TrEMBL record:
<dbReference type="Pfam" id="PF01734">
    <property type="entry name" value="Patatin"/>
</dbReference>
<dbReference type="InterPro" id="IPR016035">
    <property type="entry name" value="Acyl_Trfase/lysoPLipase"/>
</dbReference>
<protein>
    <recommendedName>
        <fullName>PNPLA domain-containing protein</fullName>
    </recommendedName>
</protein>
<feature type="region of interest" description="Disordered">
    <location>
        <begin position="307"/>
        <end position="326"/>
    </location>
</feature>
<dbReference type="InterPro" id="IPR050301">
    <property type="entry name" value="NTE"/>
</dbReference>
<dbReference type="InterPro" id="IPR002641">
    <property type="entry name" value="PNPLA_dom"/>
</dbReference>
<keyword id="KW-0443">Lipid metabolism</keyword>
<feature type="active site" description="Proton acceptor">
    <location>
        <position position="196"/>
    </location>
</feature>
<feature type="short sequence motif" description="GXGXXG">
    <location>
        <begin position="39"/>
        <end position="44"/>
    </location>
</feature>
<feature type="active site" description="Nucleophile">
    <location>
        <position position="70"/>
    </location>
</feature>
<keyword id="KW-0442">Lipid degradation</keyword>
<keyword id="KW-0378">Hydrolase</keyword>
<feature type="compositionally biased region" description="Basic and acidic residues">
    <location>
        <begin position="307"/>
        <end position="317"/>
    </location>
</feature>
<feature type="domain" description="PNPLA">
    <location>
        <begin position="35"/>
        <end position="209"/>
    </location>
</feature>
<feature type="short sequence motif" description="GXSXG">
    <location>
        <begin position="68"/>
        <end position="72"/>
    </location>
</feature>
<dbReference type="GO" id="GO:0016787">
    <property type="term" value="F:hydrolase activity"/>
</dbReference>
<dbReference type="GO" id="GO:0016042">
    <property type="term" value="P:lipid catabolic process"/>
</dbReference>
Length: 326
């Protein structure tokens, strides 16, 4: 009979940092640990639950940088804010109804209303939700890196250099989630036009590694059984909605499923990357889901996945050291 599953080195490093009280900007272990948060529209609620669990476990200060794509950028911002417990708001149907308004196209507005979401609800809150403390995200010791896709080049772009204040942070959040067609026009920031990060880097670990991360914890919103398949609508969208955009953007848009398959293979094999995914029997959440029971179940599926992964640290022997990246 085999023994308990050996905890991943990334989890061991996070646990050791928590045990010793290691703080961002004052490390002594020589590592740079990044958190990479996948998006996926309302499927992002799963990663929101995962991020909430990291906060509950006291592991947030173990990260040196947080990278987020699309809805994952929003979850990353909440985690780094002064009120990470507000990640629970993801499960509210009112939250979903604010960003997804099925009557909007009749009024000439995009189906996914990022302005109402980030510039109104996130900025001012309402009777049920507290606003996001944008300044606390920028002032913290953990680097925040929302990603988006440059419309001119099709390349994944780190928006951190374009963020200097709360207003620019809100714009960056909109840019990271600017889905072609569903969210309307690309978002302008820093002299560039940006579309949703998922067009070029749905799982934002590549940028984290390119910027020097030695270890990456990836919060996935797709279950392991959710195999990436070619989109039947993508060629039509590339010929219509994106017809006036540069060819590199259209090509990257059409190659999304191929990159996701490559991501799955690399994330399963790279020894310095640990992935957390919802259980195979967890609910399947669509990009435009608004059902309250489904959203709550998805949030809890994410929380459970992180708590179970962290729980494997108990009753296992300590390794000699943490492997360096190859």
């Amino acid at each position: 009979m085999s023994g308990p599953e050996e905890p991943h080195p990334v989890w061991r490093l996070l646990a050791e940092r928590a045990r010793t009280g290691s703080r961002p900007g004052a490390r002594s272990d020589g590592h740079r640990v990044a958190l990479a948060v996948e998006g996926g529209g309302m499927r992002g609620i799963i990663a929101g639950g995962m991020a909430l669990a990291l906060h509950e476990l006291g592991l947030t200060d173990g990260f040196d940088a947080v990278y987020g794509s699309s809805a994952g950028a929003a979850s990353g911002a909440w985690l780094l804010s002064s009120s990470p417990q507000s990640l629970r708001f993801w499960a509210s149907p009112k939250y979903a109804r604010t960003v997804i308004r099925r009557s909007n196209p009749l009024r000439g507005r995009p189906l996914v209303d990022l302005h109402a979401f980030y510039e109104v609800l996130y900025r001012y809150g309402d009777g049920d939700f507290a606003p996001m403390d944008f300044d606390s995200v920028l002032a913290g010791g953990i680097e925040y890196h929302p990603l988006a896709t440059d419309a001119a080049t099709g390349r994944s772009t780190d928006l951190r250099p374009f963020i200097g204040d709360a207003a620019q942070l809100r714009t960056a959040l909109r840019a990271s989630a600017a889905l072609p067609l569903l969210a309307g026009e690309p978002v302008r920031l820093g002299g560039h036009r940006f579309y949703d990060a998922g067009v070029s880097e749905a799982v934002p670990y590549r940028t984290a590694l390119a910027q020097g991360a030695t270890h990456v914890l990836v919060l996935r919103t797709r279950r392991a059984i959710d195999v990436a398949r070619p989109s039947r609508s993508a060629p039509l969208l590339a010929r219509t909605v994106l017809r006036r955009e540069p060819e590199p953007l259209r090509r990257v848009f059409l190659e999304r499923e191929t990159r996701l398959a490559e991501d799955d293979a690399r994330l399963a094999a790279d020894p310095v990357i640990a992935s957390v995914r919802p259980a195979p029997d967890s609910p399947r959440v669509g990009r435009l889901a608004r059902d309250g029971d489904l959203l709550l179940a998805a949030l809890e599926a994410g929380r459970t996945a992180v708590h179970e992964a962290h729980g494997r640290l108990r009753d296992t022997p300590e390794p000699a050291d943490t492997p360096e990246p190859g």
